[in-house]
User: Fold this.
Amino acid sequence: MLLFPSAKINIGLHVTAKRPDGFHEIETLFYPVASLHDVLEVTPSDRLAIRLSGLPVAGAPEDNLCMKAYRLLQARFDLPPVAIYLHKAIPPGAGLGGGSSDATATLLALNELFSLQLSAGQLFHYAVQLGSDCAFFLHREPMLATGRGEVLTPLPSLHLQPFRIVIETPPVFSSTAEAYAGITPRTPSLPLASLLAQPAGQWKGTVVNDFEASVFARFPLLAQIKQRLYDDGAIYAAMSGSGSAIFGLFNVTN
Assistant:
């Protein structure tokens, strides 16, 4: 079975509180970017194996999130072995959700391949065990995310079709743990949903990513890229997630 796990960008990201379980409360908008995607193939096999190509991925292949997704369902359904082929085009460590998207796509592939007939609720249950943003990739529409990223509310009115999304992925790996260590949680003066209700041309300076200050201090190149996007005519530019990808929204005439 062949799937094309897509990337996402975060439009605004507030870290509002530290949770007792060690996670953080956030609010952010996850927006799907179908034009940037990996390639995932899952087929029955006589032994469990994974093969990677494309952009390099840190860590041992057997620790890849796709393998973790397989083992999660295998423990519940006693699945036979599969061969997983993953071609990486979404840069790892860029805040674009590539690993989470791959993991969720593996769940969907196994559900279809072995006729597990998992409901949407069951798929959500397994997805959130793999990562805070994995559940988002069960959807193909903008989602306001709260909790640790797994509480999702559709925002069907927010669509960026009038704009061209340009994503810059510099050769910088931004550690999520270090990014969280560099911020102090705070309650924003206005909820993100209210800010996003304004026209995108008014987002600059109001729809912010709380990680930018500390991550830009460690990697000044990222701040330079953001400014360059504005200089090139972007109506809005920001870092995605905990970095290091920087995206800009351009009017289609630019």
Notes: The chain has a mean pLDDT of 95. The first helix runs from residue 65 to 77. The chain has seven helices and eleven strands. The chain has two domains: 2-153, 160-251.
